[in-house]
């Protein structure tokens, strides 16, 4: 849906890449530009993964210093690393030493009781001195004790002005903002103060918003594809996945929100939810869901037209 938006992978740990049995770095060429989000705190292991990722064709490497889960803390990576800026600097330096692609950092505005602006600027300054030029800041602090990862995305209050101030104090950094951004109106407002906007949950629950990214934010005059176009263009990719032994639900479950707010959207969601997970589910489940959605949309359109004619 977008050729310009930078796509981030889920966080992949250095251990999974170096010692895991699966291929955690596979991506489709259509996903460019794409950034590999790494979790880890061992500079040597991160450097190894950085070198592999560049060989695999990634456009950027991003060190996660924002995830607050217990599992991540126990592995000494994620948000807890904000308390160790010198280690983060060492990690990013080790990665930069072996690759030519950008090495970036994603962090919070603070952790637990360490949430002063001075704490944040000390962290950013140390990382910037190590050569990092791009930082994405989730405008909430993280509570490492007492809140789940889900609660950490919702309960700590957003503080956008603090991120704006960070950009004023570090004008040479490319600074992006993240947290609670759900519309292009909000994105444009943030871009008055920072260089980029990261959208997470909204892009997942309402993925069709990505179809407007190129025209809204990058000035691309190309025609915006329809939701039906999106489904049709996904079909060859899904067929390839099924032929390789994958299951329909691996992909279809991420498409459930495609028709959010549209007539027939409920039928689309229901049919995929009830059928895509079945072991023998094939591409016909997707095409059936699309037909159910279209039939409902046409019925609603006819009713609206009749009501309009009666009203006139």
TrEMBL record:
CDD domains: DUS_like_FMN. The active site is at 67 (proton donor). Gene3D superfamilies: 1.20.120.1460, Aldolase class I. Keywords: Flavoprotein, FMN, NADP, Nucleotide-binding, Oxidoreductase, RNA-binding, tRNA processing, tRNA-binding. The record marks 64, 150, 153, 266, 269 as: Interacts with tRNA. Its cofactor is FMN. FMN binds at residues 37, 106, 138, 178-180, 200-201. It catalyses: 5,6-dihydrouridine(20a) in tRNA + NAD(+) = uridine(20a) in tRNA + NADH + H(+); 5,6-dihydrouridine(20a) in tRNA + NADP(+) = uridine(20a) in tRNA + NADPH + H(+); 5,6-dihydrouridine(20) in tRNA + NADP(+) = uridine(20) in tRNA + NADPH + H(+); 5,6-dihydrouridine(20) in tRNA + NAD(+) = uridine(20) in tRNA + NADH + H(+). Its EC number is 1.3.1.91. Residues 2-291 form the DUS-like FMN-binding domain. GO terms for molecular function: flavin adenine dinucleotide binding; FMN binding; tRNA binding; tRNA-dihydrouridine20 synthase activity. The keyword Electron transport does not apply. InterPro entries: Aldolase_TIM, DUS-like_FMN-bd, DUS_fam, DusA, tRNA_hU_synthase_CS. Catalyzes the synthesis of 5,6-dihydrouridine (D), a modified base found in the D-loop of most tRNAs, via the reduction of the C5-C6 double bond in target uridines. Specifically modifies U20 and U20a in tRNAs. Belongs to the dus family. Belongs to the Dus family. DusA subfamily. This is tRNA-dihydrouridine(20/20a) synthase. It comes from Paraferrimonas haliotis. The lineage of its organism: Bacteria, Pseudomonadati, Pseudomonadota, Gammaproteobacteria, Alteromonadales.
